[in-house]
Design a protein that fits this description.
By secondary structure, the chain is α/β, with parallel strands linked by helices. It contains eleven helices and nine strands. A six-stranded mixed beta sheet has the order 1-2-3-4-6-9, sandwiched between helices. 36% of the residues are buried.
């Protein structure tokens, strides 16, 4: 772990906070590992219903700490780097729980890639976003900017953002559909918390399957999707959470879901 990334569980929400303001929250490899490890900890904790990724006020993440970049040996091929193709860098996207990014400052490079992998993004009016990679001679490093971003904002807009590396502000990010909502800085924490509680209020068993179905929907044909859909529906119909949801409705009381 690292002193620059904090983790807390509050009211069923795992709060992951990047705290390195003197470096604009640029991520060292140790910090990146901490983000992944804390996400896995939240995933394994049955009391956690959703994850909020945030940072100290006025900041989000300026990307990778460039002083830690490793040179790639001449002659290296993509096939020689399985750690970059096996999905291990997509821990927010692949989490079975809802993940909300609360962004109160610049999100660039790896910072905006991580935000892109989250299920929801809420920004303060101070937030700014840049896929700066081509200006450093790179493609978006986790692949989120070339796979998820076009699905969020459309291929043409994604190309404009990634080809140019230009910063956009929070209002523009909301207009193009990258950000769900924009609030004042002092309202951001409460807004993220309220959203996290709302989107994690249903059955964890069902939410996990809905998230997977949506995440995979654009890369499957309709018929392939329906096979996965029916499998998920059947699992849900056989679950304790489904029985509890029906009982709670009939008994006119709040449901108490267990994720089973």
């Amino acid at each position: 772990m690292t002193e620059f990334v904090r983790y807390a569980v509050e009211d069923g929400l795992a709060i992951i906070t990047i705290d390195r303001p003197e470096k604009r929250n640029a991520l060292s490899y140790a910090m990146y590992d901490a983000l992944r490890d804390f996400t896995h900890a939240a995933e394994a904790d049955a009391s956690v219903r959703a994850i909020v990724l945030t940072a100290v006020p006025g900041q989000f993440c300026a990307g990778t700490d460039l002083t830690e970049l490793h040179d790639v040996e001449p002659g290296t091929k993509g096939a020689d780097r399985p750690g970059h193709t096996d999905g291990r860098h997509w821990f927010f996207h692949d989490s079975t729980k809802p993940v909300i990014a609360a962004i109160d400052g610049p999100a660039a490079g790896l910072g905006v890639e991580l935000a892109t992998q989250c299920d929801f993004r809420i920004a303060s009016t101070r937030a700014r976003f840049s896929w700066i990679f081509v200006q450093r001679g790179l493609v978006p490093d986790t692949g989120a900017g070339t796979w998820i971003l076009p699905r969020l904002v459309g291929p043409q807009m994604a190309k404009r953002l990634v080809f140019s590396g230009d910063f956009i502000d929070a209002a523009e990010a909301q207009r193009i559909g990258f950000v769900l909502d924009v609030v004042e800085p002092d309202e951001l924490a409460d807004a993220a918390r309220a959203l996290a509680l709302s989107v994690s209020s249903g059955s964890p068993f069902a939410t996990q399957r809905v998230k997977q179905l949506i995440n995979e929907s654009s890369s499957k044909s309709r018929d392939e999707h329906l096979v996965s859909h029916v499998a998920a529906m059947t699992e849900c119909q056989l679950s304790d959470d489904h029985r509890e949801g029906v009982a709670a409705f009939l008994e006119k009381r709040p449901a108490v879901f267990t994720g089973r």
